[in-house]
Amino acid sequence: MFGIKRPHEDYALSVRLGKFDAGVIGAAGSKLTVLFSERSSPPLCIGEKVKLQFLDGGTLHGREAQARVISWHDRGIHREVEFRLPAEVVVLAAGGMGLRDDFRVVPNPADRLVAKVRARGRTEWQRTLLKDLSLTGIGVLVSSETDGALVETSLVEVELDLPGIGQSLPFIGRIRSRCMAGCTIRHGIEIVPKMTEGHAFLEESLRAYSLQRQKELIGASRLLSEPKEDARRSA
């Protein structure tokens, strides 16, 4: 209808699913979140496998990727849908949205990186598995026992070891979220810069690791199919 914007027209990156277009509003880890118009949204089942075609976003323009529907929510006149895709595709999507500098990256699972966490002022460290990280915080997976040891606090001390850094990275963090993640519990820990000595070095180290990991993932972009002619003519 003349004068009415489709949701994807307001975003730097958009996708097409069949005959439906949507704007990308989030890209983190292996999840891509998009926004359809409620009156122009495809019928989707949770767990359904679909093919997304990227309409914008530089490197992604015209390419396709397999995705799985993991959730949808109605947001006023729009429908928000969350898809799971290969992490390397989401990295490229984040770059297309201009988020590359502070994008949350997922470590190589083979590295099994560990972050030590303890309630501030306590002596006993809890070993956790690093799930993801950005310049502003980390996500870790903990057992129910470890969650119990941290349940009465929000402020924690963290020691993080990343490949190629050569030393532990200590910081003060605040637990911002807790949620089930399979048989474990994911803690979202936000870095508190004003309480962290050497924060500048910490941020520099996180940035270096994040960029290196993004390069590794982007190098695996062969999972994407080649651009389609109709996508080049769209937008």
Question: Overview of this structure, please?
Answer:
- The structure is a single chain.
- With 235 residues, this protein is of the alpha+beta class.
- It has 4 helices and 12 strands.
- It has helices at residues 87-96, 144-150, 199-218, 229-233; strands at residues 14-17, 20-28, 31-37, 49-54, 64-75, 78-84, 114-119, 126-133, 137-142, 155-160, 169-181, 184-191.
- The chain has a 6-stranded antiparallel beta barrel with strand order 1-2-3-6-5-4. Strands 7-8-9-12-11-10 form a 6-stranded antiparallel barrel.
- Strand 7 (114-119) and strand 8 (126-133) form a beta hairpin.
- Helix 1 (87-96) packs across helix 3.
The helix content is 10-25%
CATH top-level class of the largest domain: Mainly Beta
Radius of gyration: 20 Å
The CATH architecture category of the largest domain equals Beta Barrel
Residue-averaged pLDDT: 80
Keyphrases for this structure?
2 domains, Thrombin, subunit H, 6-stranded antiparallel barrel, 235 residues, alpha+beta
